[in-house]
Design goal:
single chain, mainly beta, 23-stranded mixed beta sheet, four-stranded mixed beta sheet, 3 helices, globular, disordered N terminus
Length: about 550
Amino acid sequence: MKWSVLVGSTCVMTLVGCGSPEQDSRELTQSPAPNGPSSESPGHCSPTGEPPAEGCIGDAGTTEDAGTPDDAGLPSDAVLVTNTTRFYTSVGTSERVEDLSAQPPELYVPHGSTFSLLLGSAVPGGWRFTGVPSGPYYLRVGTNYIVSSARHVDVGINKLGRPDTVYSDFYFTPLQLNLVNTAPWTNWSSPSLPGSSLQLASAQVDLYGALSLTDFIPDGETRILTFNAELWAGTGNIPVFEASKGDRLYVSQHSQYPAGTAPDGTELGYSALDRAVEVGAFDFTPDGATPLPLAGVMQPAPRTEFPLEWRLPAYTLWTTDAHPLATPSIPTFSAIPAAHGTNDGWIGYSGELLTLQMPRAASYNFTQRLQFGNPFPSTWGVVGMGSYSFRVQQLLPNGSGRHVNLTGSIATWDEFNSLIASPVQPRVSPPRSLTIDGVPASTQREVGSASPVIAWLPPAQGSVNAYRLALLRYLPEVNALVTDGALYVSGSATQVRLPPGMLKPDSIYYLRLSAFDSAGYDIERDPFHTREALPMARADAFSSLFTTP
């Protein structure tokens, strides 16, 4: 899951009352379900082939642009769906064609305000639908819907690690730490003065996580010896480590560095990788109880120093485009290791090299020299990302008296040296004039139709290659808003009708429409591999809460 990966500035779910209820600026999911991308994968809306007056798509693509070279052997009324996982390792890339029969895709053909369902059948290497008319259709994979006119769609994902990796059933494991020669420890003071922290990442299997220490570490301490530590994996189920296959782990220490002062005199700091060690190959099968022992001598990591000009007013300018009642929330700048290089974009998630979180609602040009350490191989790349989140706090319409935070953000990420070569600022602004069945989406109300039409105007700034429309549903049993389905649609679309069953009855929702600016993003034919393309920019508009009957 390239999920809530920016640990310092995000909550895993949009938890009610969370101290920093910010949206992850990538919102990707690195470890989707085995048979297709999870609902947290970056998605977008979808048009249909009906005239706009009927509330369907009309501007989502034409039959002239529907073909690809891979379509040549297909009948004109057929659509082939494949699922190819690409595994990235230090020795290269391999592919595996996944079986779709356990969770077969579905295809919906729009007819004005209604849809007809096609189920398709298994064929060697994929799933084929026949009797599909020309023009856009909705392809359902898990809880994702892709609106496409293509005759061949691959719904596979990119993944770090060995293809033969075995995964445990656990996201959590206790740790036993014996780390010496650490940089002097600093305790957390505030989001802008983050203190010291520890992270884990692997170059052989897909694992990243931040370490949680129960024991208090005194300021200035240079050794960490404890049985009271935990790892919560940010990449999903923890893999089984096999020494015979060279499975190892990087343990990295991040230290606090000064970043000047804000205009009001507030002291600013940031977290940057300082020291690290890669522990030797080992065997370990997570069971949720047995501690994973990690011991090593921490070494200073090679350092990079760079100038940053970050134009925060260029983000806050678009606050009310995100939502008419929105207020600026948290700006975050990060330098992130890109395992095994960036030839195919930013694959997987391996932690951070630097995280700078500015005070809430900061809006001035930040100019400073910063630095970070990088212990990873020279074959790895570095990605830079600047993001700014926005939020609206609203009362739940269920009589509970509870409030929730609705969020969106603007983000840009690229190869690090390319991103900082010029001032960091938005490349695309939020979609405008978001409506639900013609009513402004900022209006709290009950939505009367089972398949409402979501419409918008293109962003005022930037070009759009794709949109994702995510539905976030309130779950009272966990008091949280969670992603409950997403639609992906071409960047030419300006409206989409939700397919039947996507909205659950008697529920509370809000929706988030993300505009993506990336020339490499092929939403209709290869929506999940190409979402990793660089450079990539995204901007969100979001609705108020709405209910369903």
